[in-house]
Amino acid sequence: MTAADSLAAGRTALGIELGSTRIKACLVDADDPSSVLATGAHEWENRLADGLWTYDLADVWAGLQASYADLVRDAESRHGVRPTTFGAIGVSAMMHGYLAFDGHGELLVPFRTWRNTSTGVASAELTELFGLNIPLRWSIAHLHQAVLDGEPHVPDVRFVTTLAGYVHWRLTGEKVLGVGDASGMFPIDSATRDYDAFLLATYDGLAAGRIPALSTLLPRVLTAGSPGGALTAEGAGLLDPTGSLAAGIPFCPPEGDAGTGMVATNAVAPRTGNVSAGTSIFAMVVLERPLESVHHELDLVTTPCGDAVAMVHCNNGASELGAWAGLFGRFAAALSGRPRAALSEGSAAAAGTAVDTDAVFDVLLREALDGDADAGGLLAYNQLAGEPIVGLDEGRPLVVRTPDSAFTLGNFARAQVYGVFATLALGMRVLDAEGVELDRMFAHGGLFRTAGVAQRFLAAALDAPVAVGDSASEGGAWGIAVLAAYARAASGASLAAYLDDRVFSGAAIDIADPDPSDVAGFAAYLDRYRAGLAVEAAAARTLATGR
Q1: Least confident piece of the model among 35-49, 202-216, 429-443
Q2: CATH 3.30.420.40 at 3-265+472-507, yes or no
Q3: Most buried residue among 103, 238, 326, 422 by CB atoms closer than 10 A?
Q4: Where are the domains of the chain?
Q5: Alpha-carbon distance 258 to 94, whole Å?
């Protein structure tokens, strides 16, 4: 079948992922999920309101509709067919956070995202109670902090979910969650692929009399390949207000961005891992055996099939690098003499020619290749928000140098890229000390669109080979589309086998081995970075937010 035939017949799988800065849609051929037929996107941004990072739910639906409409236009432009149905749909989003609803389905408090670090007391109490690391951003930490604080909405809570779970619920009516996303709400028992029953009972004993039994508040857990419900007429109208989209389309279980990143990089089998770089940055390593100790730097989550994964999650990823790219882009535009009124944030022009953000990133990243291996003594702290791995409740982005540092553009750019990977590297060193071994580490996200730069520096940070596939820039939207195609296929094959045989068998993979000079240079940078964290902490204490 041609692409147009597949579109007209609905032999497709649609994936939608709500990321930190973009809502992306990706349409693939259901019989060949490596074939991307159309894409769509919409940019959005979180905001700090009353001291908490949030997104307005109205913006969720406006963004979903815009991204979907963009995909439909792209499909029609490419193939001459305007799709009205699909073989399967999947929804993915940022993991963790807190969306609490009452018995009537009304939101009780504004959405609290993974980025919030206001749950320290709850996180510490639950970690001690469970004997497992419960990070600040996990949904159970948010719920328990609200219980501890006696927030007025707590007695009315009847349903708690993630962003992907919320969107899926509104589109299908089903209160379910993929096991990977669920593992960022509450600990999962890998033997049952469900919430840990003993820990549920333990928590109920702790919170008795203050909230209903926790199992009644959480979404039902599903593994990859399970049916997740079907698009309702109301859901079709929410996604496509034009009324063209047909109801009844089957859904796969909704997943978190960590799980879709694993799928998008074919890293769901033991001894594989991946790094996803965006507003946050995190590494996922599929474990062969349980870890020996509890580490605050490591989360225990799961693959979309429920296998145990060690996760190193850093709240701060490439946003600060993006801010500097915007500044340099604005400088290029000003240098070209373009009128200020003709310029918008994030756009640039050079020599009278428009330059998009990707081009600015490309220049900066290639300049970084000319920097010294240790970034010339420069340091870049990318903490816009708190960073639990290094003990920061709040962040203040900084560039620090000594008078004898080699202050060049190449070193500045390299320091910024190293800064994206620095906290992640600290967490990965803990995993290495546990004796965890990897056969391959894949990377994906927009940072890797410029070939051979961020990939090379990540290899230096991890001192391990890093692979990037030709689907890396599509990221989680493609990953959830693949999960939708997998559920539709109902082949009985394991997800790992499906990915190997049906998705990645002909994929182009580029592998960067660590360069010894880069490894030594990054190690020197990381030593300074660790020592300079006291400066970052002092900045957070002494510099208030707001103008």
Answers
A1: 429-443
A2: yes
A3: 422
A4: 3-265+472-507, 319-436+444-468+533-542
A5: 8
